[in-house]
Amino acid sequence: MTMTDTRPAAFRDPRESDGQLVETDLRPGFRRQLASLDKERAAYVVLLGATALLYLWGLGASGYANSFYSAAAQAGSESWRAFFFGASDAAGSITVDKPPLSIWPMALSVRLFGLSSWSILVPQALMGIGTVALLHATVRRATGSGWAGIVAGATLATSPVAVLMFRFNNPDALLVLLMAAAAYAVVRALQSPRALRWMLLGGAFIGLAFLTKTLQAFLVLPALAATYAIFATVPWRTRVVHLLAAFGAVVVAGGWWVAIVQLWPASSRPYIGGSQTNDFLELTFGYNGFGRLTGEEAGSVGGGNGWGETGLLRLFGTDNGGQVAWLVPAALILGVGALWCGSRMVRALATLLLGWLVVTALTFSLMAGIYHAYYTVALAPAIAGLVGLGGRALWQRRDTLVAAGLLGLATATTTAFGFALLERTPDFAPWLRYVVATVGFAAALMVVGARHLPRRMAMTVAGTALLAGLAGPTAYALETASTPHTGSIPTAGPGSSGLGAGLGRPGGGGAAAGGVGGLLDGSTSTDAVTSLLLSDAESYTWVAATVGANSAAGYQLATEESVMPIGGFNGSDPSPTLAQFQELVADGQVHYFISGGGGLGGGGRGRPGGSASTSEIETWVAATYPARTVDGVTLYDLSGG
User: Fold this and answer.
1) C or N terminus of the chain, fewer CB within 10 Å?
2) Element (H, E) at 477
3) pLDDT, tens digit, for every residue of 347-392?
């Protein structure tokens, strides 16, 4: 009996007839396109799977990573008030020194799954996977090639600083995701008849990025605006309207929280950490804003040479080079090539990414205030996008001498930089730099002559050049993923000379068991100290107080009870004052004071631009209450017991 296929024709395989496969007259070219499409999809799945493995494998080894933000996530999981304001403790004494958006995903994860390293760090890894997917989609849309997007995504995924920050819990992971989303929205606006909707969405992403890391989010705004202004196909008057509307979206998406905080009575909300006047706008334009450029951040730990030498070559120096500089020269060369020979959309995206890279790189290179090497993760999507975008644009024109020469130059400079950067860590895979140099320079020569080679051989040469260029950063990325990172200033890759004071070295940052953390490292509580703090904890608003948020964080994470971080992150914020703290103690709200906190006010040390309240509190406590030492930690029982 023959069964008749009743499916609509649209749902049948074109090779089927009444349910039976039959030979069809598919042209060889069409079959090759189908095969190529299947390979692209498979490669994309492999890309995301490998990225997930790289970002998620062994994630829990870093513990709470940056305990400053982990403590805020724990606080937000316990109190919606602390959640909204981004408070360091559930009782809401003071906020972190950033807006709260990056804390919210972690706090929600902790609320859902309980407090653990994984609940803190998995959201960051997922942001990394999402950023890779967004960059792939952006480059694919501009070029029409999934392979270009895969090259860009792979380059981003294996950037050492990207691996570091997408396995860590600083705000930079969310910041980079939102900036990549804004770039994608602008590209869609250039292609869509609904350009205004996409521009509004892009503006909203930048506004949310502001709520992640304040003014740093605006470093990509010139590139986004210029790209739309130059390459949009709508009339100029319409372009101006769209750009103004997008700016309005920035203000709304980034300003609603600010407006609420500014209008909220200061007496009934947490103190704004990082400010000297309990004002979020002062924090935005001072400590987190122009102060970063000039080095005049009130309440900071210093600037200028204290954060490394400034200058145009800063990003290639010892502290920064291994983080992100591997492909910077290639990105610039390939970006210029894309502007020269690309289509309208390729030139548009090249303009966007070059603007993003140049403006951000110059800012990081010349800023005299607080600067850390991990900030360079903000450059990673632009670099990776230019590699995929410009590489394909020039490869398509490889029959011309200029395009072939630029490809060869990009390969050669990447090889030279790879060798130089690997040479800075001579004990790490010492053979690798010689392999990179041999294969890379050979590939550079062959790339120039690729136009004379058969297609399959030419593709092999291109693949070899790409592998040689990514070998160094990938090795650093794997080393980064296999090394636990804690503290406030992590760095990617194997330890290199010149990091200074051991700050932020891979795996560094933890205080000794039972010790109080320093300014940049979280405290570690022993079982005996934790048990003491938990005794009669329900009777107190804060089970303890100590100078500096990192000093408080370890005890708070161990007890899951509020620990007051006197003076905020640096210990230099005038919160609380001596009178306020004395009133809290008199009301029986604070049980213990833990001495030796790592803030700038600890031990009577001076604080640039800060108040004397933390030193006054320490002096008053030491003079008024008897000391007790447990596992090397000095505590004062403020209850008088």
Assistant:
1) N
2) helix 455-481
3) 999 999 999 999 999 999 999 888 999 999 999 999 999 999 999 9
